[in-house]
Amino acid sequence: IKRPGMIYGAVARPPVFGSRVIAFDDKAARAIPGVLKVKAIDAGVVVLAKDYWTASKGAKALTIQWDDLGLGQLSTASFTEEYRALSKTDGLLAEDIGDAKAVHEAASAVHEAVYEVPYLAHATMEPLNCTVAVDGDNCAVYLGTQYVEASAGAVVYYGDFDADKVKVHPAFLGGGFGRRGLGDDVAEAVVIAKKTGRNIQLVWSREDDMSNDFYRPAALVRMQAGVSEQGLIETWAVRRVGPNVLDHILDQWVDVLAPDYLNKGFVDWLSKLGRPLFKRFIADPSSADGIFSDYDMPNKAVRHVAQDPGLRTGLWRSVGHSSNAFFKESFIDELAQRAGIDELQFRLANMKNNPRLTEATELVAAKAGWGKALPGGHFHGLATHSSFGSAVAQIAEVSVEGTKIVVHKVTAAIHCGLVVNPGIVRDAVEGGIIFGLTAALHGEITLVDGVIQQSNFHSYPMLRMADAPKVEVHIVESQEHPEGVGEPGLPPLAPAVANAVFKASGQRLRDLPLRLT
Predict the structure, then answer these.
(1) Is the pTM above the cut of 0.85?
(2) Which of 260, 240, 359, 373 is closest to 306 using CA atoms?
(3) Binning pLDDT at 50, 70 and 90, where does residue 467 land?
(4) How many CB atoms lie within 10 A of CB 77?
(5) Whose CA is closest to 254, among 265, 235, 268, 242?
(6) Cα end-to-end distance, the chain, whole Å
(7) 22 and 67 Cβ atoms separated by less than 8 Å
(8) Angle between helix 148-159 and helix 246-257 axes, rounded to 10 deg
(9) Using omega within 30 degrees of 0 as the cis cutoff, is the peptide bond preceding 513 cis?
(10) Burial 355-373 (b: 16+ CB within 10 A, else e)
(11) What is the DSSP string of 33-67?
């Protein structure tokens, strides 16, 4: 989008997340032809120029002194060790049915395993960008957004515009997955427009986007379960450790969605209430999503220990289900192997009260040919999971070449109720599978001394077309109420692949991304 008299902005951001500008030298930046202005803002220092590439070059030419108040002491190795220790503490109850503790203590055998997943970025193909045009008391915003109200609210809150003077012009997203709609991109752009009195287009570089995301939380779980001689799950106990999603989301959204007649100080105070609430009193629902459901478990206790190293966390495609399905379905596979029961039959025996998931599981087994001969060196892995009202079962056909994991085919079945347009359903499930496979094989955000180590696609790789599996999606015919399809295709993918890798290699991979040794 281009507006009359528009200039372009690029922000020099701190190398350590959370640091602030103490001072900066902009002589080299201002000497670049086409650079118009340099301004300090909360996020760093913005360079404004006649075009984006000049602004970006100017931002790189700045010399900036940053404070040491950010996450300079934070490294992935240190908080991982902390998570492991905390996984033996109580935390807050997210689910408590029956008497898991008593049955555990009386059981002859209890299986235990620890699983871990990293922070993940959204890595949308189009990085964040926002164009702001100010005309007196009126403000127009042009951007791809998943949440128009939040984008408009950011103009009101950060730009001090009246709500009835704000117009948002939504564009195609260029990828969202939960990232586009928090208002932080609009907040920066509108503040810069107000400070300069110009129409501006603010573009985030890939590096900006990768190191200033609202990440999928890193998490660690300690899982325990007891299985009867008949192969039925009698007890299920989980202790999950990691940051909450809702702390950061509520902090962001309360600010931009609060009525504009409320005092800003009061709104800011209100937005911070989620942190003590979800740390001390209530387990964040998104942290436990899907980790205790799907199967018949008469005794279960799920606890969450809220531990936040400090990185912003947010909604990532399928939210808590993205990690919890990996934990749950990998562990279910372990239980089946330990009991000496076929993984398909073990699941079906333990989901008698889940007809939707049962139908999807039976359909995918039939379509993929579960139990039938595969090409030499190929193995099937199964995972099932319910999320957003829909049930999805997936079977991944995998082989191992040395330490390389090759996914040849993924067969999926979804029960999402009444389907009006089957093509859209298949597209959504296929998209979830590819997005999930990228994360399963490659995705991780790591920190060393507060610096995020991933910056672009060379260090945060995407699944390439040459490595993409064949995908088949089958839909359970139903007249039931229609449910979600945009996110449920993702959660079963990682455990389906991991379960196949176990058969192919003998290695039970309990951490993501999946790496063979």
Answers:
(1) yes
(2) 240
(3) very high
(4) 10
(5) 268
(6) 49
(7) yes
(8) 70
(9) yes
(10) ebbbbbbbbbbebbebeee
(11) TTEEEEEEETTEEEEEESSHHHHHHHHHH-EEEE-
